[in-house]
Amino acid sequence: MIQPVAERTPAGTSYLATGQGQPVVLIHGVGLNKEMWGGQIVGLASDYRVIAYDMLGHGQSPRPASGTGLPGYAAQLAELLEHLQVPQATIIGFSMGGLVARAFALHYPQRLAALVVLNSVFNRSAEQRAGVIARTAQAAEHGPDANAEAALARWFSREYQAANPAQIAAIRQILASNDPQGYLTTYELFATQDMYRADDLASIQVPTLIATGEWDLGSTPDMTVQLAQRIPGAQSVVLAEQRHMMPVESPRLVNQMLLDFLGHARTLSDSAKGIVA
After folding, report:
1. Which residues form the AB hydrolase-1 domain (predicted)?
2. What percent of the chain has pLDDT over 70?
């Protein structure tokens, strides 16, 4: 596969696009960028048109304006799809990207073909909320990499960290190089918007997959089940022995789950349109 070259939309969003077929958009987590999806781009691009982009305040995309909320992050994705002339896409959001994917599903339902939320948050407990608010305060005081060591310990297994020191160092560098204000604006949303329009989630009427890892301490299996219960017909999956960064640590496992879901979603779509295989 030819390595895609980053391009920009008129509004400045940096993105990669490769492959042919039904469009699939990948949204990274807070502090990361579109490069986290390398394993998924390789695994999905033979069957789908795969689009990965940098969220506002991350990578090569512009900083969000002061006070930007989740609707602004959803609007960024809508502008990207408009630029690419994509009328509908499957949206796959990881962690903070899962919140953006949910917001997009609520604000732009006509642009949504299917929805995948990976390792994301919903209905935090008081203890979980206090912990993420404390990390937000640390980031505000000390910068984007204030919690890097603790984050990496939550995100990856010890074995993976030991076997892939160069990759772990690169991710640590990505965290440290974030624009402080862009990172903080995004992290504050990540910390506070887990219940964003929760009562409206029942309006989502597309095939939906909610998944996390068995050992994801911040985006727990219980959160996954609760979120799936809010969306009609949503499937919930908990991958055994996986931590938060399972798309990076176990790309083949995650890709197989995604390909199974995407195939199922395509079958449902074709049935709805009266298409016989």
Report:
1. 23-250
2. 98
